[in-house]
Queue: 4 jobs
Job 1
Amino acid sequence: MKRNIKGNVSWVGHIDWDLETFHGDDYSIMNGSSQNAYLIEEEKTVLVDTVWAPHRFEFVENLRKAVDLKKIDFIIANHGETDHSGALTALLDEIPGTPVYCTAAAVKSLEGQYGKRGWNFKVVKTGDELDIGNGKKLVFVEMKMLHWPDSMAVFMTGDDILFSNDAFGQHFAVEELFNDKANQCLLMKEALKYYVNILNPFSPLVAKKIEEISGMNLNISMICPSHGVIWRDNPLQIVEKYAQWSKSYQENQITVIYDTMWEGTARLAREIAFELSAAKPDTVVKVFSVSKSDKNEVMTEVFKSKAIVVGSPTVSNDILSSMTGWLAFLKQLKFKNKKAAVFGCYGWSGEGNRILREKLKDAGFEVVDEEIKSLWNPETEDFAKIKDMIARL
Ligand code: FEO
């Protein structure tokens, strides 16, 4: 389970082919994932991160086969979240007193999760360095809010490797480890899904951090994130993607998102998509039912869109609960620079469109005035309004 990746650096993580969800059940995993940990064997022996708690004993046993645990001089804990710190308890039971280098916030999160165990924390901040011998050193870079307050990255001089933790990662199992060995379409799809669903709320900080790291002139030759592939072929390609994605990214796409009770709102959704495609032939148009589609995948489509069209029937003076939940998640992701329009059927009170409009504005969308509001089922006069509505998008 020890795989050399460059010089005296090896991958010692866990590939999770069977993982189905992440963050509880909040993030869907379609192509497996990994928790990447790395072993540096210079004059000093350094472990960078560990794995998720359920794999902690297997991790320690594998690590024992890779190196005499007592030879580990330093542990780097780039992030306190349990998918990377979950094996620290088992490991430090074996080698108590080994220095754990992390941010001040990581001490709080590690002690908060695992209790005060007397671990030998060494608090670091951006620019601090650790000599690991053979003329090489580790340079620490705080990555506050990318995506937790405690997040950190480490740059290894000599081999010019950036251990970036969650940044630049993907939930994507690749046994061959490296980006040039992976299916490129799946890799970029998973990298984008990861960015949208985990990092997009912090996009302004991502943009600033990329500028800061670029200003450090680190000459990065390899990026080793804590999930998914290692970027060795043109590693800066993912940094360039993050730079684009962090600046109110959009493509020429409009996405229709709806739920329905008795097919009226679904018929509107289909007709809106048809009219969109007819009126804007160069625009990519996609349609998703929030009840039948994976929410993380749909959010990735929202991210790519310049506008969304959102529909729900009115039910019990409100909108469908599936749509309420979806809109709550939409707000969390803090999308910017996107338009929206609303539609839906009603039979009695008809508050649905107003509620959709309020929630979309609250989520940061510019909602156009034109809308489709159909009493009972959509009729010819309702369909006739679609052209005006989509002309505003
Ligand atoms: Fe991969 Fe924030 O943990």
Job 2
Amino acid sequence: MAVESRVSAERIQDQKPRDQFKSQLGFIFAAAGSAVGLGNIWRFPYMTGTNGGGAFVLLYLICVLFVGASLLLVEFAIGRNGKTNAIESYAKIRKGAKWIGFLGFFSAFIFLSYYSVVSGWTVYYSIQSFFGLNGLAPDQIGNFFGAFISDPVKPLMYHGIFMALTVGIIIKGVSQGIEKSTKIMMPMLFVLLIILVIRALTLPGAWEGIKWYLTPDLSKITGGVWIAALGQVFFSMSVGMSGMVTYASYLGKHENLPKTSIIVALMDTSVALLAGLIIFPAVFSFGLEPGAGPGLVFITLPAVFAQMPLGSIFSFMFFVLLAIACLTSSISILEMPVSYLIETRKMARTKAALLVGAIAYVMGIAVSFSFGIWSDFTLFGKGVFDLFDYFGSNISLPLGGLAAAILVGWFWGEKDAVAEISNNGEIKGTIVKAWFPVVKYVVPVTVVLIFLSNLGILKI
Ligand code: PHE
């Protein structure tokens, strides 16, 4: 009886008018919160490190400008026009386009699983900042990190804690969960980043790192570097998985979409560039390897903190804030499939969030094991982590983004699409004018060229 009444109370709650972001600022923080995360602070530096430094940064910026920023506006437009979950929002424009949403739906499981594992590392590092990390030499920190991620049990605990937090916020809903939490944490993250940049730039030998980071060596550019830069842009800006379609569906008709997309793109890019300005001066200053891969941030930054007065406090603050930046991203990954399960499959919010979270948790176990007891297991020459990462960022996101651009550019049509982003002609300006032709021609051509060059069919 008690259970039944709780279930029906939940049903009634789900039938209330759709939850919405309460303010434009709230939405900006939520969307920027989705974009800014591991992608900027952890993945961008190590991808730069393994893909040739400055050359990668240059290609990254080109992809932000010509592909990422306009796709952000594509997703915002599709979502706000749809006012429903991503899968149905695509269907509103064209029935046959539902698959783009389903592709995002499945990618969300892949992303959530590995995102939660790595975010779990940040939770562990927050706690460890007070115990053991300070006072260790860089190579000892390297061993510490290696021992932790290859442990069969410990990382799974933190993966569990992080997943539970993500599920907890999503159960609370959009305005009370997503909007409230991101509005506080995003400004804090910015301030801390600036402090750390100043510290890193004043380390002895910092200049070598800056040079390596910001001078493009064009001979390093290959099809592989192009696809890595493109994949990084999609991952970092949260486009191609319809997470931004989902968020924008909770947006009122009066918000200014072009302005919001520019702000989010700028915030995302500047956090990534700043993260590089922290990591690379430090890497060169301590004689570490920039191409160290996924461990880069977890080894280099603690080494910087160890050199700072009050280092353990800064270290604690940094990893807590990073964990929070992760949380503001992981909730956007989870909300995407959850909104579909609620609205189309008529599931209660709590049940949907728990279900997706549980499946992604189990998938994450395989990801975590791939750093340890399953490190010999490979598919297509890659371990589980690399496979999820490569498939997710370099195939699924660009494909989803390409399809969304073609849908808007060639099927939705200029009149309706531009009416949506300009609030029926109220908003004017260069961005509104330039956006449609970029989406129709530049985005598809660039993405296809990069795909072809990665396959070796074309040399750019
Ligand atoms: N953009 C997030 C980050 O940089 C990750 C993300 C990818 C979030 C795809 C949502 C969708 O960490």
Job 3
Amino acid sequence: MRAAPTATAVAHPNIALVKYWGKRDEHLIVPLADSLSLTLDVFPTTTSVQLLPGGAQDVIVVDGRPATGEVLRRVTGFLDVLRAHARRHEPAHVDTRNTVPVGAGLASSAAGFAALALAGARAYEIDRDPTELSRLARRGSGSAARSVFGGFVLWHAGPPDAADADLASYAEPLHDARLDLAMVAVLLQTGPKSVSSREAMRRTVATSPLFPGWLASSGADVTAMRAALATGDLPAVGAIAERNALGMHATMETAIPPVTYRTHASHHVLDHVRRMRERGEQTWSTMDAGPNVKVLCPVSDASRIAAELGEVTGCRTLVARSGPDATVTTGVPT
Ligand code: PMV
């Protein structure tokens, strides 16, 4: 028997400047609000998908090891979405290689599911319109919808009364953004997180008294962020991003029971970034579902700022810039 051809795709993580936090539809992964991100040029994930005609079940390998538990369940569930879309039944062999520490709030799931959506769509011969690929990636992990595109990206939640919520929620690149932004990641901790972002979001939406206020302000943040990106206004971009991220953490920290991703070390970096700003540096912080802090700054200052943050924390730092679209690198012939 001839082996089925393999499709391989590469995608990069993205960091939201206006965060996605809270779902309107848990099953379809439709968010409560729009979000806006920057796809990075570091930590790509490469994923290969090979169909197994006549095979009994999916085989999922992550970083050289057979996937188990929640990861296996999520990837298999996503392959089911692709199969339903393609009206096909073959199981698949998935081999995925991350270069980002998994589960550390650096969005490995975004790059992972974007790469899997592209490679899987190619393997199962699904329509490859980028908007459709973004919708598909969303079904794996919400933020993956944004990693389908490079640069600054807007993910539409879609109207609350949309007739087809799945169709209405997808990401698109922002072509009018005029800003060369750097992001310094301070890698405080690279172990897996204690509470998944999925669970943390659910708990926040259900129980935090601060959540409705943050959600309402994030709509205005997207509008202001778009305007600031279009005029290349870095201080406005930084200020909106920092306040939006700190607000998101305030919502989860007031959930019942609270979700606390910020550690003592995170607060130390947040304080230091504020002090740098007070002495005239252009530095603003953002954080995701983990303890690491990412610092927004001008590209020309990034290596100096990374060196200072490395010295102050004793931790590894890394400078990222705007990254590319997700791409299929080797594919099943069309
Ligand atoms: O896609 P998920 O379920 O990993 O959600 C990630 C949400 C945040 O990273 C915290 C914010 C965002 O918009 O990326």
Job 4
Amino acid sequence: MRIAVFSTKPYDRRFLDQANQAHGHELVYFDPQLTVETAPLAAGFRGICAFVNDRLDREVLQVLRASGTELIALRSAGFNNVDLAEAERLGMTVTRVPAYSPHAVAEHAVALLLSLNRMTHRAYNRVREGNFALDGLLGFDLYGKTVGVVGTGKIGLVFAEIMHGFGCKVLASDPFPDAQAKAFVHYVPLDTLLVEADIVSLHCPLTPETHHLIDARAIARMKDGVVLINTGRGRVVDTKAVIDALKSGKIGRLGLDVYEEEEQLFFQDLSQRVISDDLFMRLTTFPNVLITGHQAFFTAEALGNIAETTLSNICAFESGTGELRRVTADKRV
Ligand code: NAI
């Protein structure tokens, strides 16, 4: 099938081309993000392939549908960037990659936590400059601490397991607790988790219910000096409230792999430009904040699985057989 692949980076081509040897689709790569301005590039393509910051709102979907697109093959797990109701109304099929490597994301959340705790990001620069002073690098033992996991899907449970391995007590909050979760995962209401956790890690999807789940009220319930890690989606956190809490010292350390307005920033080299997002720039001024640009998924294993599952979704759509990992407005299949 002919597929227009948006937001293509060299690593996407590498892994998609490799996996496509077994599938034989015609993949046409476009560098730009999918927006209403770039949607016409997909004219005549029955399918398009999109990533997390491609915009698939009502307007874009209508442009795509009018020019012949029937399939949206997401090469991501999250699908908050798609107006699913509109896709359904237009008769378009949306597929995703439900699980490609929960380990990749969970391990990155742990990397953020460990770096922030021991201030490795600061120590690296200090040592390079011949500054071997330890002031400001004081960490704490993870052993014995309470970790709150918000969202115990595939990624949250792997993260919980790793933290259990460190000797942490694991609290979890999820409207749909996993009956298969290990006995060391103690489900509690979110409010209890926020009050009791030394470390809060977010692994829920972005939905209308989780938008700004971590706002000023939620932060007020947290322990003083709490460590907050977000590898879920930027808009789960109210950035302004988080900045206030960093200024007051309520939040002791903040690790982000996702950011509310990341669509304007991430996945591109802006080092020669002036960044006009003042909230983002304010975050970068705190010594106890560590931000990565949506790279938690970025392992060789994950990219290989993403490519393989995306292409096999396209095959299933084209042939009407095989597993079609479809996502619909009311339920995920
Ligand atoms: P999943 O679908 O397996 O699990 C999500 C869990 O969150 C489910 O158990 C669900 O019941 C729970 N949940 C829903 N609403 C909630 C709420 N209000 N409070 C607490 N829990 C809630 O998804 P998976 O694979 O574990 O991924 C989780 C999220 O991680 C994705 O939706 C995506 O946004 C993000 N992600 C980030 C990546 C990155 O590179 N930073 C890569 C992959 C996913």
